[in-house]
Amino acid sequence: MRIVSSVAVMQRIARHWQRRGACIGFVPTMGYLHAGHLSLVHEARKVVGKAGKVVVSIYVNPTQFGPKEDLSRYPRDLKRDLKLCRAAGADVVFTPSDAEMYPGKATGRYSTYVVEEKLSQSMEGASRPTHFRGVTTIVAKLFNLVPPEVAVFGAKDWQQAAIVKRMVADLNFPVKIIVAPTIREPDGLAMSSRNRYLNPEQRAQATILCRAIRRARAAVKGKAVSATKLKADLQMYIASAPLGRLDYAEFFDPETLQPVTKVERGSHLALAVYFGKTRLIDNGRL
Ligand code: AMP
Fold first, then answer.
1. Active-site annotation, residues
2. Cα(74)–Cα(124) distance, integer angstroms
3. Residues ≥6 apart with Cβ < 8 Å to 130
4. What count of Cα atoms within 13 Å lies in the side-chain half-sphere of residue 44?
5. Is the CB of 36 under 6 A from ligand 1?
6. Which of 92, 109, 176, 263 has the smallest number of Cβ neighbours within 10 A?
7. Ligand 1 centre distance from Cα of residue 233 (Å)
8. Phi and psi of 54, rounded to 5°?
9. Which atom of ligand 1 sits closest to the CA of residue 152?
10. Global pTM exceeds 0.85
11. 50/89 Cα distance (integer angstroms)
12. pLDDT tens digits, residue range 112-167?
């Protein structure tokens, strides 16, 4: 496995692979890897096969963090991440510095961003106004650098995956996007690098997110329910975890992300809940 921190070297390796006709699979991450990330690496390998190449990027992208968010304290452990990537069979781990990814930014000479204008308005986009601009920009840059035939994203970030798919379609990136299922802890909590911020009491109550999804799923079994009523019920239910504070709970069509007024089987629920300063997200098909 090669560890690459230079953009020029990453491009050179990719050109070499392309000349030999190797299919490139790509998994972008911010590191502090867990079994959820690794499931994406395994999926990428499955798709490109033994003869293909798998690139994992580890980069905490500053442009997707708001000014008051956790950029500087975002958990990092590159040594451990590299070990996990090697064991998962990655060919290259791409770990660029900020200076490599955004040359000129420090001196005000970076001014190009990729913006998706519709799907990124609601939910995470409403709570984190510049977040998706940062995501689409870095993903577009990485797609240009790696350049993958297949990229694997997690269903854990459902809205993000939908926006990346839209960007790929709108801007003609020759990349196939695969969305792999959310990997969970034994008690149902969706795995996330941010789970490590939780103290033991918060961690115990954090299962309220997946329990809320289960509760909504049970509520729409065999019948449609008004979104307003179900939201009110979930608000009450989430209040039963006193350390949690609901940011949003939205019911929507899983493909278009359009909100639904009648929630039924096949509708999607996404929610964000604060535990102290830590913001957890989860989603699921009902
Ligand atoms: P992150 O490092 O949080 O930016 O996530 C990198 C990729 O891993 C994204 O495509 C996420 O959706 C995905 N991911 C994060 N957590 C999980 C999980 N629990 N299960 C599956 N994929 C995940």
1. 37
2. 18
3. 63, 64, 66
4. 33
5. yes
6. 109
7. 29
8. -115, 125
9. 10
10. yes
11. 10
12. 999 999 999 999 999 999 999 999 999 999 999 999 999 999 999 999 999 999 99
For residues 276 and 244, is the Cβ–Cβ distance under 8 A? no
Query: Ligand 1, closest atom to CA 182?
Result: 20
Q: How many angstroms separate the CA atoms of 29 and 31, rounded? A: 5
pLDDT tens digits, 98-109: 999 999 888 889
pLDDT digits (tens, 9 = 90+) for 157-181: 999 999 999 999 999 999 999 999 9
Which residues have CB under 8 Å from 247's CB, separation 6+? 127, 271, 272, 273, 274, 279
Q: What is the largest CA-CA distance in the chain?
A: 59
Q: Is 38 in the pocket of ligand 1 (CB under 6 A)?
A: no
183-216 per-residue burial string, b: 16 or more CB within 10 A, e: under 16: bbbeeebbbbbebebbeeebbebbbbbbbbbebb
